[in-house]
Amino acid sequence: MTDPMQPAALTVMAAEPVGPATSPPDRPSLPPGRWIRENLFPNTRNSILTVLAVLIALLAYRGLLNFVFSEERSWIAVRTNLRLLFTQAYPEHQYVRIWVVVGTIMVLAGVSAGIWARWGGVTVKRLMGWLMSGAALIATGVVLREPSVLTDAAGEALRDGAGERVRESFASAMADRWVWWVLALVLFGISLALWLSLDDLRRRTTEVPVSWLIFGAPGLLVASTWVVRYGHYGFTEGEFIAEPGRIVAMSTRLPWTVMWLLLVGCFALGRLARDRAIALSQAAADADDADGADEDAASVLPRRSLAKTRATVNLLWLLSPFFLYWVVMRDPEIDYAHVFSTMLPMGLAFGVAGSAALWWMTRTDAGEFGRLAAMGLLLLAAFQWVAAFFGWYSMLQVARIGFVLLAVAGLLAPNFTGVAAQRRRLVGAWLFVVLLVFYGATVINSPSTVETPTNMFIGGFSVTLLVSVLTIMLSFPIGVLLALARTSRLPIFRVLSTIYIEVIRGVPLITLLLFFSGVVPLFLPDGMELAELAAAIIGYTLFSAAYLAENVRGGLQSIRRGQYEAADAVGLTTVQRTGFIVLPQSLRVSIPPLVGQVIATFKETSLLAIIGLFDFLRMANSVVPNQSQFLGVRREGLLFVSAVYWVVAFAMSKYSQRLEQRVGLGQR
């Protein structure tokens, strides 16, 4: 196995063609002139379409360049307000918490990529195409962009007798843009060197590890902040800073360098752990084959260890948004007197009593009494919420949540009956959930020590990312349950899920957001509030779950009847059949529409401004243009926001394509 982090220059693949089940047959490359004739100008009609498409693309490219690099554009507004756009008014003296959050994400991303990713490589032929395209794009842009406006010593534009702006000559403009010419020539030179040093077969079969590109491009960008004079811009203590001729501030380039090192280092550690586990497992399996013995624990143990590591990383991903937001960024001021007098005893009571109840319900002789006990817990939990709605008696909300979770655990208890290890696993999971719920309730209900000018301590892209991540995490399991209910044989579940899905899909998203933000708080009991952020997440989650349910239902309908019959034949329960056979196949088929829904959810967070949240779009559209230094400067911020949205959506789309290739979607 080739390690992409090794210093080898290139990895050479086998030259023999592979079968049609893995990839298309290898075919020699066409000469450039022949490729152009066959693909762009094969006949008169296609030639006309090619010319028209090129002209339209050049006009659009020219318009974009002239807009971006126009002297009328005030990009200094975006540069100065980058921190405001991404984290709103988070206090500068506590900004280290932001870097802790980013560092945690980098660590998890690096480890996950190391133990999960199978990126493979990019052929030299494709890499040459990228380099050539980049060089052509840069050179074309240099030529298409109109010459710059001449200015006087005070920086004012010079005008002729007719009042028009005076621009430099075309030759002077080309000379002033020598840096871009050099960059285009460097890219073209690298591509040409690869073309001349390798023959056609090696260009098609030699690969560069994808990890080099994924980590190398950000590394070059981070390294450039130490040498390139991008300028020093910021907004500190009510004062705007704009120093265009300086190196990026140390408070920016040093943290980003550390973030990149964390990402690469954790990727290397994750890849080392994965390769070591695979090597140990393979060595043990080879030893068993040599001895003529069956596969024993020595070969299974490394793979189990790797599986546990992956499960742990996945669990950390699920918990990280809640911990990073409510603990790290909020810095809650916990009332320990209340913790020791109320929360700790209540948590111990739920943990001990719930463990005893679950242990009893998972006995082999519990039978129907265990199921009746679970239904009793469900009725008790429902009664607690009815009592809260009518105000019959007071009770902490965390206690009502505890009753609901205990009822859910009781309903799941029959699946863990019999085997002692499974019973202990259920009890351990219950204790872990109780710990998370009561700890989370403590930190969420504790006031934040972060002081900002607004009622929210964070905004901008951070809120956009938080809402989209939490919405995706919460709506996915709800959507799966709704899809299973809609395809269920039980009429009550099928009818209820169908009504929910059709009603939610028939209501605009903005209506749901306004409903949970302005209407639901009117019906809450005294002393219970619904924060704007929570209202937005609930609205987005319920809306996204309905669409996810239909995407998953499409995958469920692709499962043939024989799969169900085979599961019944081997004696699997309904839960086992669904979890081990039906859902894995249906979710695999549903990857394209699911990723499309995820991208749509991320972009729909731009509606947060309507209910009063300072999201990414609102910061660029309303906050920055209202600053006294940048009154009316709106287009630049909107273009920057659009670019960020496109980058994130494009990254998710490309990851979806690689995920489809990894699971073999579309292959037989």
Please summarize the sheet with the most strands.
Answer: 3 strands, antiparallel
Structural class: mainly alpha
Which term fits the overall shape? globular
Radius of gyration: 30 Å
The percent range for helix content is 55-70%
Unreliable residue stretches: 1-23
Given the structure, what is the number of helices? 25
Strand order of the largest sheet: 1-3-2
Explain what you see.
This protein has helices spanning 32-39, 44-68, 76-80, 82-87, 96-116, 124-144, 170-176, 178-197, 200-205, 210-224, 250-291, 297-329, 336-361, 367-390, 397-412, 420-445, 461-486, 491-505, 509-519, 532-556, 561-569, 574-589, 591-604, 616-623, 635-663; strands at residues 11-12, 121-123, 206-209, 232-236, 239-243. By secondary structure, it is mostly helical. The strands form two sheets. It has a three-stranded antiparallel β-sheet with strand order 1-3-2. A two-stranded antiparallel ribbon has the order 4-5. Helix 10 (210-224) runs antiparallel to helix 11 (250-291), helix 23 runs antiparallel to helix 25 and helix 24 runs antiparallel to helix 25.
